[in-house]
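Batch 3, record 17
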Amino acid sequence: MKHPDRREFLQSSAAGIGAAALAGSFPALASAAEASPFKPEKGAELQLLRWKGFVAKDDEIWAQNTAKFEKATGIKVKIDSLSWPDVTPKAALAAQVGSGPDIIMGWNDDPFVYPDKLVDMTDLAEHIGKAHGGYFDLAHAYCYDGEVKRWVSQPIGVTGNALVYRKSWAKDAGFAEFPKDFDGMLKLARGLKKAGHPCGFSLGHAVGDANGWTHWVLWGFGGKQANPDNTIAINSAETGHALDYAKQLYETMIAGVSGWLDPNNNQAFLAGQCGLTMNGISIWASAKENPQLFPDTANVIPPYGPSKQHTIFNNFTSAFIFKYSKYPNAAKEYLRFMLDTPQADPWVTGMVGYVTPALKGYADLPVWTSNPNITPYRDTMAASKFDGFNGKPGKAAAQALDEFVIVDMFADVCVNNMAVKDSIAKAEKRLTTIYKR
Amino acid sequence: MTGRPQILARLDSPRVLGYVLIAPAAVLLLGLLAYPLVLGVWLSMTSATLGNAGEFVGLKNYATILDDPIFRGAAAFSVLYTVCAEIGKLTLGLALALILNQRFRGYRAARSLMLLPWVAPTVLSALAWLWLLDPQFSALSWLLIKLHLIHDNVDFLGHAWPARFSLIAVNIWRGLPYFAIGYLAGLQGISKDLYEAAAIDGATGWQAFRRITWPLLAPITTILVAFSSIFTLTDFQLIWTMTRGGPTDSTQVFTTLAYQRAITGGQLGEGAAIAVAPIVFMIVLAVIVVRSVRER
Amino acid sequence: MFLRRLRLYGPLALYGVFLLLPFYWMLLTTFKPDAELLNTSNPFLIFHVTVEHITDLLTQTSYLQWFANTLFVSVASTVVSVFISYITAYAIIRLRFPGSEVVSTAIFLAYIVPPAILFIPLATIIIQLHWFDKLWALIPIYATFLVPFCTWLLIGFLKNIPRELEEAARVDGASNFAIIWRIIFPVAVPGLISAAIFSFTLSWNEYLYALVYMSSSTNKTVSVGMITELIRGDRFQWGQLMAGALIGILPAVLVYFFFVEYYVAGVSGSVKE
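Prediction for the assembled complex:
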């Protein structure tokens, strides 16, 4: 969806927001402009818990936008931020004790772990979706409860995963252009290892990185964790092929990946020791500080496997409102405001596309094409699958992801030299226990 | 004495005064420790998940975790971790205390510097160690390579056994000052006359240690080990920061697994059961402490 | 003579290296520019000293606030815990009232509860008391794990104070109040200092409760603030983290430097036969 005249749109929507917010208390000021359907409660005050931005600009611009909201509506919003893996437990605690922040920007299956504690977001999600071109399928998987037919959470986007590599080293290994499929990638990895610039993908309990690449490979071969009825589907020939491939890839990797947590691949790449890894845009963004490294660093959408489709795993972030909140309408209005173009545009652009929005409309923002290294992150959402694929999102998928069942299955084969069928059996047993509840 | 208000006179009775004095501690510990503990045990006997109270299921959670190889592994490593770390801390701490018990130049500075590992916040020390043991950037590996003792960087935390021993080593590093100071205190209670008498009898240093020092340190050894073991068996932050229980769950201990299952996994009942499990060990330890204190 | 020196300073040096290496590392990392952290010919040296990590830490983060919070909570928890422990220990060991044995045992047993799981049921209670996100609430919470050990320490210490002291005071007509505070208290000072040092250390280092029960940035303690705000996603701000760690150790180091003798004497007094 193309915005005909950006400036016009900005002006009208700014007026609309201000008007809508004040309409409750000053009916005379309600203009003919599009009024938001969400009328904040009187005397509302909000508390938002979100994850700390991976890039500083994220937090900065989000705070600026929030200040705009405060000015326009008089509603104070307190933002608390935590390191991203710490948000899920904090949200769980809030759900458990029935008190805490009004809005939480959580991850993946969070809203499905305690859906009955959350405010129905259908009106908000549909309103925003309509205004910005609809959502990518992934958003439905993580935020829409098909059984009760309602939105439990407001989709925001993913912290996209793509491959980052050193162009000159890839060229030396015979790949002037990045390979398009898994076989090519293995060849490249072998070439890189021979030249002393090995690739590296985490096999430790790295919440983001380890889950990222193992799911990508698993699905790339057609393997999957569960079926739509939540029976376990991990035990298949496809899974076996994925593990065989991973083992060969592991042999080309840099030493120590089995203990890598999330920051390790960043550090190894930025130090020039690792030539290829999977990550969010933060590696490339950090490389800017190094004038020798930066021009040689490139991002590319990860290749596909025999399933002939892109099968990326990204961490999905969405915002949910707890029923204990005294100001759910104010909360909804806040989210609507923050995801509206005048706010979302500078936010996505300013953080160099770190978060790929779930709204299709924002795929047209100029930032994505401002640099060819940013474009792969735009496409990462459309190319994704959700965790627990192809089962139902919810407590079981969340627990399986949290326990690194898939990651450990790969690590057992690659690092611990377990036989493929034994590793699959172990994962199957654990998944069966988890999904049985 | 006459004319004092009735209530103050009442307080003269040891019984009344006794209850009054322990009241703050009682309220505090009953309200903020005993009650949540009971709640936690109750939780472990329900099928509670996050946001859902669940129902009473008796000992089912315990049966489930006993059947779970990950739990059994965590239990085994918790015990191994504790035993190895305690032995390490005891021996190295005692040796250090023996050294620090002498008067040498700078002994006061030495005593306080040696305490740093125990005094520094664990979370931050763990991060420093993470960097020191990094597979790519470890300064220790660098040093060993420079000394031509090894060829490639050591992978401290990437495989099961190296990771386990690395964690034990860091725990020893953190806890040995506690033992050293405790033993220093104990050593000061041993009269020098005993050593002089032994020297006159021709005993060697080692014999003096075995016959005098070690037995006389027995009470403080018991106390130090018992308290320290309780902390070590329920260690959380060190392991969580450095490996998060990985690689492949090889460094899981009771608390990390319980935290993972209960909080991030949402299985409160099961997580609570895992947390209650080590209490059995700790009751044994606590009984030992109480008995030894009573004996004196 | 030389051999004796070697036998003393040799092992001492080894211990020194083992125990202090990570702190040397913290020092290095604090003053090392980021570029050098990832790429250097000798990680034990600094080639271009920088103080930007320290200045950034102090100006761009709420570190000073966190430091003040931690100091406040640690000192207050210490005072409260030592006070409660002293009167409790006195009651148990000097007053011998019926049930004192039971209380004594109960206090030890209070130690065997892992905070890593207690924090969920405890959270429900904290919420009900409206203590959530109130910094001072950490004081009674910390007291729950400080009081048991301090009570034990003081029980051991008070046990060794001769009864004659009290009996003489009673003969002179002193009230119980006077005995507790004017007679016994001064004698118990080494034990009290020990307990205070121990309490201060544990409070200063506590992480989990402060993480879960405090929420606003202005209520965070040093450990919590640094972990949650200086680790950006997948990038550790090593320089600032280590600078914060170093500065964060200073109070405890100062306390120990001046009071370690008391600590040793206190523990010694409490385990004397």
